[in-house]
Amino acid sequence: MFENRHDPNPAFLNGFQGFCSVFVTAAFAYTGTELTGLAAAETIDPKKEIPRASKQVAWRIGIFYVVNLLLVGLIVPADSPLYSGEGSESRRSPFVIAIQLAGIKVLPSIFNAVILIAVMSVANSCTFGSTRTLQALAANGMFPKVMAYIDKKGRPIPVVILQLLFGLLAFINLAENGGTVFDWLLSLSGLTILFVYGGIALAHIRFRKAWAAHGHTLDELPYKASFGVWGSWVCFIICALALIAQFYVALYPVGGPNLDASTFFQLYLAGPLLIFLYAIWKVYSWFFEHEHSPLFIRSKDIDIYTGMREQQQHISGPGVSAEQRRAAIAEIQEETEKKSVGTYIKDAIRSII
């Protein structure tokens, strides 16, 4: 198992270019962890559930991503055909190849079935995330109004149909040139998630600024990010560096050709596309949606009250007196102090499980 520790290949295959080229794939693999924040709007008690879900995400990334990748790296050699496959040519999971190299005959088929079930779960998550986002955009006038429709059971039918139509693109991978199409789609979605994570980090930074500018303190918040604003700055900087690294790889890809227009757009299509869409939206809002036209909003002018939960309004609402606010903060602190060490241990075990 540990034979690959003495692999003659260098630590980073293909040098610095090879190191930079994996950022998009890594970002694509982590896509979906941000859904905990998106689900907060539909959670009955986000004060309780969101912190728990966030902790579970951290534990699961450590166990199911980092540990598993370490094991695969120890078992599968760096020069395995797995790493040279592209798109539809990589028909087997790296975990399946690791199991085959370990000489276990039955387990690969079982693991393939597990992966298939996991992919169905991912499809469900993608349907939830994309439909809720598109419906919210339509409700705020940033997407065709017809997509804002929700039926009596709370289902956004039009955007679900739209999402399923785009989902049919998956069958393109069965074509002969499916690998090339897959690379284009991977570049588009993988690079986009870097903009998403960077946007989330920037939104948190701006929210904290606006929260303080309106005279509020962090003690009023039922949930605070573990690493605060500094964690968001680190996330934003990492996303920016990853975008720069991918831009470099798009100009000088591993194996060439260098400075090729087709290769550049295949690896960096999402960048100019998002800038183009943002510019189109700003031009449109300048004429038709004036409330969305400013390029920058000062912290004191940011609306932090629209959409605030009723429970939070009793603490931080615009009409709450200073005395009521202090009493609410004292109640929050009292609830936190009541938690024993055993409670924290139970929460940690529950998060791992």
UniProtKB/TrEMBL annotation:
Alphabetized Pfam families for the sequence: AA_permease (PF00324)
Superkingdom of the source species: Eukaryota
Domain Amino acid permease/ SLC12A: 11-284
Keyword check for Oxidoreductase: no
Record protein name field: Amino acid permease/ SLC12A domain-containing protein
Transmembrane parts of this sequence: 57-76, 96-123, 157-175, 181-207, 227-251, 263-281
Keyword Transport: yes
GO cellular component: membrane
Subcellular location(s) of the protein: Membrane
Molecular functions per Gene Ontology: amino acid transmembrane transporter activity
Membrane protein topology class: Multi-pass membrane protein
Keywords: Amino-acid transport, Membrane, Transmembrane, Transmembrane helix, Transport
